[in-house]
């Protein structure tokens, strides 16, 4: 999430006076998208499945990568 100005390739949504700008192509891949304010920051959820979390293959037993 970042401050930006809308472009021709964006959808603009006004929610309670706040504008949210989302690239049209990205939105088609990510929908549904929700943005929640949690009091200390934002939580962004989408329909993108990132699969199960896994450690990188080059991590050593002491937790260092490289």
What does it look like?
- The chain has 66 residues and is mostly beta strands.
- The chain has a domain at 10-45.
- The chain is built from 1 helix and 4 strands.
- It has one helix at residues 24-30; strands spanning 10-15, 18-23, 34-37, 42-45.
- The strands form 2 sheets. Strands 1-2 form a two-stranded antiparallel ribbon. A two-stranded antiparallel ribbon has the order 3-4.
- β3 and β4 form a beta hairpin.
- It is extended, with a radius of gyration of 17 Å.
Alpha-carbon distance between the termini? 29 Å
**Strand order within the widest beta sheet:** 1-2
Order of helices and strands: EEHEE
Round the Cα radius of gyration to an integer and report it.
17 Å
Which outline best applies? extended
> Which parts are unreliable, with pLDDT below 50 for 5 consecutive residues or more?
none
User: SS-based structural class?
Assistant: mainly beta
What is the residue-averaged pLDDT? Answer: 85
Helix content: 10-25%
